[in-house]
């Protein structure tokens, strides 16, 4: 009886909170700040920026040690056991690796702390000096986290590098920071070996899995690295314990290299104080974080969103289970058919996502519903329509007995995709479309906290609260930040605009980072310190405030192109509107000042396009052939037009011509970042001939 009452009361409370949101709850209020004139907002509940949520804790090293003392016997880090690795071949002859993964095997907080201390000592015994820097160049895993915390215990600055970075960017990052020790997996070690002759300072390589890649023998004789396995470093540290040298709040914890979406990556210097401020602020927003929660860790730890999230989880006693985007669900690309994905095994309650991942979940559900058809499809559409109408009107039907019925008949199957227990999803890294946000919210029955922040602000900026049922916004300022809008007259955005102030978004607070490593010119361009000592970062994004103090991102200065007849086109805004088409896996809009129209490169969704073609009786040799057919291009163009009209795009914003592409854009191809953002300039160069032809076609 008790469990039943909780199951009814919790949704009812959530409903009342949502009603209060619709009744005009204030979330942000104007604040007087220094610096360039503008319109600034702070969080309603915090008159001054939050720096630490833990009394006496001022660094990430102190925070982790205290958490391990409090939760000594609780599970902290979990990794799935590898049962087998198999190679499968498709009909086209391509090879695919498939993994059979077993249960999660866990380290307690006490065991993890012991490993961290051993790694810190082992690093010293290998000869790594405190003033030298360590680079972690690997996929997300528990060794990544242990190495990070181990470096913090010796006040060693960690350079984080996306595992998907190409040779030029990798070489630039390692040389610029004069890294002496590199921690990497086998796949990443192969890349390091390939550029070994170009690295100036690397002395030590620590291999996470202890395996050597096929090119290990090709290291030039002039390179005098020592190569040690991660387990050997732990063993060395256990046998030769060294006292910690803990950092100060102003010490640089991480130099985080951006994903390089606009050229060579820049190294953002983050202090312990910076990251701690963001973590402390998020704690005030996510409801009831505690030891009963389980966090699914699969995004790149080289991204500030994941790094900050894992530090927060560990701080409050939460279990962290590791996975990857390619093994996340039962149908993920690298999961052996008939075996379980990471989410099914872990059954997490909390997840962080980037919009591209949520878009894939949405598309996957829709495709499965369409493929099933019949009564199942009818029930799903009916349940979704009822829940959607409830969101927009009366909430009683959504959260009472009807909710329980629809959950049992329809949505529990959708929730099972991510383990069935997710209660909160944090989305960041890029704008989340309103369609995807609502779809995931309804199907998972869990709020999505959409945040806005940048590497330069330690992911801190704004965050939508759990009782905010709106979509398309990124919430009120986090308690660690002030958000200010300043005029951008060239783009037509002014803080005096009615009915809402509009302008470039500037973020101020203790989470704003020190600047770019060895790049004083760029640092001075986008970082400013005001007369009150507050540090501000100029984002280049354009936003406006709603009446309740919440922010909406409406443009980006760099993404705005002026067409031949004077119309302004926001590339990112249009792409976000068009990617909701079921035929689209990815898209890049291209606008040229010498033309009066736009064109687009569209990566086609193979399953959806092939299903449509089969129903139309179209014959094709392979998917590339299907994408070249005139009727396919016409069908996808029609779908884009429908999405554009739904988003109320202007005629000049809608691509007049498109090129359908059959090959997906992946981090490995270098066309998208590790966070799955498109690399606009790289794509433009690779497909320059296709773009030129789109403009020249009459």
Model description:
Residues 100-517 form the AMP-dependent synthetase/ligase domain. It catalyses: a long-chain fatty acid + ATP + CoA = a long-chain fatty acyl-CoA + AMP + diphosphate. The chain is α/β, with parallel strands linked by helices and 698 residues long. The protein has three domains: 2-49 and 354-420 and 422-556, Luciferase, Domain 3 (Luciferase, domain 3, Roll); 60-73 and 110-319, Rossmann fold (3-Layer(aba) Sandwich), CATH 3.40.50.980; 563-696, GMP Synthetase, Chain A, domain 3 (2-Layer Sandwich), CATH 3.30.300.30. The protein is built from 22 helices and 29 strands. The strands form five sheets. Strands 4-3-13-12-14-15-16-17-18 form a nine-stranded mixed sheet, with helices on both faces. It has an eight-stranded mixed sheet with strand order 9-8-7-5-6-10-11-21. Strand 5 (134-137), helix 4 (142-153) and strand 6 form a beta-alpha-beta unit. The chain is globular, with a radius of gyration of 25 Å. The termini are far apart. Residues 1-23 and 394-398 have low confidence and may be disordered.
